[in-house]
Amino acid sequence: MLLEVSTPLAEAHDLALVDLDGVAYRGPQPIPHAAESLVAARASGMGLVFVTNNASREPESVAAQLSDLGIPAEPADVMTAAQAAAMVLADLVAPGARVLVVGGAGLLTAVRHAGFVVVESADDQPDAVVQGFSPELGWAQLAEAAYAVQRGALHVVSNRDLTLPNERGFAPGNGALVNAVVAATRGEPVSAGKPGPTMFRLAVERAGAKRPLVIGDRLDTDLAGARAADYPGLHVLTGVSSARDAVLAEVGERPSLLGVDLRCLLEPHPAPVVGDDGWWTCGDSAARVRDGKLDLGRSTAGAANVSIDLVRSACAAVWTARDAGEPVDADSVPDMPVHES
């Protein structure tokens, strides 16, 4: 269920684990209100660690991009799936093992820093293959990975995101490339990135935080990862998953908090409450499930946008009904384009 937080989120939590694509920026473009909100949250005492499933880039490159967008960051403020993958490898293979790296510079650096010997071919008899996203990857590299896995190498991947949001739309993500190797080998790799909890827990441990908050735009990675790590998750509607997606989310992907964008870090978070009549209310918005269908107290038919409080109310109504075993017709949940100036 959604949480009630009576103070601004930036004061209630000592660390934010912030996703990048779809939260802080979209490709090379900033997301409106992200920079000033994160700067203000940090000024309120909230630490920031930027946690990304993108394994192709060095932490220095990520930090430089954030700084250029008005979000001052150091490499130590960045936790990448490449770093997490190298740590997972360290638990699974011996120090100094041979590793075939299929990915970008960030993954190469992380594997080398972890003390492994990088090889370039399946013929070098690698003990493991580690795979991460890089826009330069082609058939030849994927084929080498498949050959090595077929010969017994462990297959570790940075993440399995099927899509990668950018300024032009949704491009194939690392998961799409991983699936090419999976199709050839019929094996399942070990994934280090979200939605697994590894990166989040490593980042919290490194920061020494006590009250972390995961912030993301994707239910299936960011928010599922928050659930897996047992940290509260804030879903912002600036990226992949929509308000309607949140209302229909399965238990393991549900956020604990909902906001339009990162300005919500500077505000309390109200939680819906239910009345004797079955209506869930939040602010001046209300929703309920009746006869297996979502009923909104404020109609969205023909509306250009709805309030975030209506989305919160709808989440509470649908989640409660489904958890009680009551089926809810997904077609009764409308698109809910939320916009707040």
Automatic annotation (TrEMBL):
GO molecular function, one term: phosphatase activity
Entry GO terms, CC: cytoplasm
Keyword Glycoprotein listed: no
Gene3D superfamilies tied to this protein: HAD superfamily/HAD-like
SUPFAM superfamilies (UniProt xref): HAD-like
InterPro entries per the UniProt record, alphabetical: HAD-like_sf, HAD-SF_hydro_IIA, HAD_sf
Record's keyword terms, sorted: Hydrolase
Protein name: HAD-IIA family hydrolase
